Amino acid sequence: MLMATKYSIKENSFRIGCGRYLQGSGIISTVADEVILLGCRKAYVLGGKTALSLTREQIEEWISAAGLTAIFHTYLGFCCQDTCAEIMDSDEFKSCDVVIGVGGGNLMDAAKYCAVLSGKPVINIPTSSATCAAFTPLSVCYTRDGRTVGTTHHKIEVNCVIADTAILCKQPVRLLLAGVYDSIAKIYELRQRMQGISVDDGDIGLYSSYHMSEFAADFLNERLEACVEDTEKGLDSKLVSDAAWVLIALTGVISGLARGSNQTAIAHKVYESLRALFPASVYPFLHGEMVGMGLIVQIAYNREGDPEQFRARMKRLGMPVRLSDIGVEPTDENLSLLREKILASTAMAGTDAEEQARFAEALKLLI
Prior knowledge:
By secondary structure, this protein is an alpha/beta fold. The chain is 52% helix and 12% strand. The protein has a six-stranded parallel sheet with strand order 1-8-5-4-2-3, sandwiched between helices. A two-stranded antiparallel ribbon has the order 6-7.
């Protein structure tokens, strides 16, 4: 039995792709070609510390060989509007005509935020597949200390994504797993919203998103352990490449088709609420790790599948499955704070007293 929450479409446009999506082993070598294709000459390269340590020397070489120039800036922490504003106000940033983001999800969001709000094109080079942030036309924003403050939906798509599998295959398994659980959350959250709504009565984009998310979840669930094994070995295999495509490109399309709605149901609200309520405790943990914990609650609430079996697989893979695993004391007070914040959110819009009581019971699985 699923709940039937109300939904609304937040965005008028279908932003379901990026200008160009390139994926392959060594494909990062085309970065200068993509800058030139955009009609640009000077790049502001915004990168994470680890990401730039892996790629800066090569990017500088390719940019210079093409007669272009670049300024490099190391970005630390979450995508923060205040931090991005300081970057955009700098003379170095203003002197550049394209932004290149290199790194993980928060870095991708920061690069998009700085580029779109300053009217510059953006090229994203993800060094992990922990989220689809390289692809999606939005930026999830936080305070400097990691509290969620909301999502900025950009009116235009990302200009280019360069997904180099020779880099992605070397990511820590933890990042791969975070991406997998962030992606498979879509099917549970969309199914939650589509209860009792026919294709003739509902939004056609949302239905398309739903069926794509079903394929993505099936693909990832069936191949998860094998993909973990290849990633542990650092293999640039077809399986790792296919998984990266599903996690970055396909999941990005799924998000774009939903147009800013019906993605953030219980699993994602667990994540957002944990970040908002306990920022210091959960700071070291990944988006997809906490979404995975939220899925334990969502599966129990939806009454589809076995939440304990789902939890057991996560635990075997070394993921957090309880509040204590992410540094949050499982006290009655903390559980009450989490419960009330989620009950007041859009994830529970349109629910009745029975559904809210069922959610409260499901949330106890995190104790």
